[in-house]
Amino acid sequence: MGADIKSIKNRIRSIDSTLHVTKAMQLVASSKIKRAAEAASGASSYSDAVCAAMHDIVSPETAGSVFVAPKESGKTLIVAVAGDRGLAGGYNSNIIKLLTAEIAETDAAVLPVGRRIYDYCVHHGISLFDNVFRSSEKLTDNGIREISGAITEKFAAGEYRAVKVLGTRPVNVLTQTAEIKTVLPLERAGNGSPQTVFEPDAETVMNSAIPDYLTAVICAKIRKSFLSELYARRNAMDSATKNASEMIDRLNLSYNRARQSSITQEITEIVAGAENQ
């Protein structure tokens, strides 16, 4: 009986220690959400405007551009954004599942952003854009511009037939969706603005704007993915904290029952001993 009481007490201490960790991680995630939401909103609005402008440039005049004309050969480059850390529910695993499915269907190379996706690609021998680790949380705008410039050069050289960006979109605070989008070659969206005149010509303007276009798209995906990660981690830690609290309540009940049973047994033994005398 004494061993059972000690075992229950040790379990309570262990779970209580875990509860403190999950509470702390929940608070840290919550404290970062406001700033991350502002960054994601700003990056997303800018990206939408840039994408609309770029797709409007696509016309018969630019159909021969290397950034518009479909390619029959070459790899697909996938810029995959995941988290640097775990304990975020299905956030990282959903990205990995979508990436795995995409690679299974096409000859692809991956530019991973985030420790989890980088380690996964290295461990599974997936072809990489370069062997450089980039943090999804700490990657700066200048770092994203460098990535975009390198992608632009390799795509223009014919090394890749398409460029896709894979990340997570926060539907709301409780739901996040992994998604993939083709960003190159460009496609025309809607009727555009036929009265727009470009100097010196539309193709020159479009080609010079591609690095900025990629920077806007990749930056928006990274910022939205990081916000999704924070939502997912806060939700996961909230659930873990509630589960830990419930377990502690159940163990406290078991502990009290075991303690009461032990005291009753001791009293019974004392009474029995006194009667025998």
3D structure, described in words:
With 277 residues, the protein is an alpha/beta fold. 62% of the residues lie in helices and 12% in strands. The chain has two domains: 2-21 and 236-276, Helix Hairpins, CATH 1.10.287.80; 37-234, ATP synthase, F1 complex, gamma subunit (Pyruvate Kinase, Chain: A, domain 1). The chain is built from five helices and four strands; from the N terminus they run αβαβααββα. β1, α2 and β2 (108-113) form a beta-alpha-beta unit. α4 packs across α5. The longest helix has 75 residues, at 202-276. It is elongated and about 115 Å long. The relative contact order is 0.19.
Structure characteristics:
single chain; 277 residues; alpha/beta; Helix Hairpins; Pyruvate Kinase, Chain: A, domain 1; 2 domains; 4-stranded mixed β-sheet; 4 strands
